[in-house]
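Late entry, evening session. Most of the bench is empty. Finally got around to the prediction I had been postponing all week. Sequence below, unchanged from the version circulated by S.P.
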Amino acid sequence: MAKIIRQHISSSFFSFFSFFFLVSLLGLIFPVVRGKVPAVIVFGDSSVDTGNNNGIETLLKSNFEPYGRNFEGGRPTGRFSNGRVPVDFFSEYYGLKKTVPAYLDPNYGMEDFVTGVNFASAGTGYDNTTSAVLNVIPVWQEIEYYKEYIEKLHAYVGEVKANEIITEAVYLVSMGTNDFLENYYLLPTTQACYTIQEFEDHLVGLARKFVEEIYSLGARKISLAGVPPMGCLPLERTINLMAIHECNEEYNNVALEFNAKVKGLVNQLNMQLPGIKVFLSNPYNVLRQMIRKPSIYGMEVTYKACCGTGLLEMSYLCSLDNSLTCSDADKYVFWDSFHPTEKTNRIMAEHLFKTVLYKFL
């Protein structure tokens, strides 16, 4: 049928139509999405935390310079980057605010949270043991904050509007990396309980319980993020004694295995939970491509980060008076030894929105 139609349409018109459709589909015309998604609601770890760790007692913070030096106003916000993180871009692409406020930030209130709210905590994971390593917010507490938010939302906008927001919002979930790097590969007690494949299955089971929990509270549009090529993080390359500065391919293979299992979970959830729409937002391939061929993206440095020596620094080790910190973060894939630069976050966000997240519209 498509072939017959094409034969009856002039080539010039068809070329224009195809281009317009493709551009619209990929989300490049952002104004068309305004009003389709009322809010973005975020759960997860430092890949998406926009400042919740500022309000808790933990060593894992980033609310000081040079973090945030490329953020609006040049101010540190608690984001583990020199600027915005992926969920900020997703919010903008859905026609909402350019940033997603942290729930524990005292500078924000319900008037700010109506169109988006962030419960993520740097250092957390699906497993409660992971959050205990650096004393950060466990995932069950993120859900408790969400329940509290629901009550406040009902009081603020009324039952009908609140239910609409809860049902139509896009839920962005990003965690798992810390479960492997700060839990399994760090703690002998965890390794004594699981093989790596058993631990992957354990995390997938916890991810299922998490989705089922927020589903029971009204969530219907859910993005589960895969884990990145964690063996290529500057910190892991620095401590890879078998081949210093090279990616730890064992860790990368685990990431691939885990992401495949999350994909299987996504398929199961879509079949088993009525009305749900779950997608896997997998950053692995696009980030690996940036690491392998940075020049394609206008970057130069991949094996080390911008902050300090770029080999080990993260959080308080990224101090303002470190003279080694780079002057142009856009040339680097990573900002600190564990987290991407704002440019990398934007490229990943654009890719994931154009390939996956536009489907929630």
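Two things to note before I forget:
The beta strands are 40-44, 116-118, 170-174, 221-225, 277-281.
The radius of gyration is 21 Å.
Will write this up properly tomorrow.
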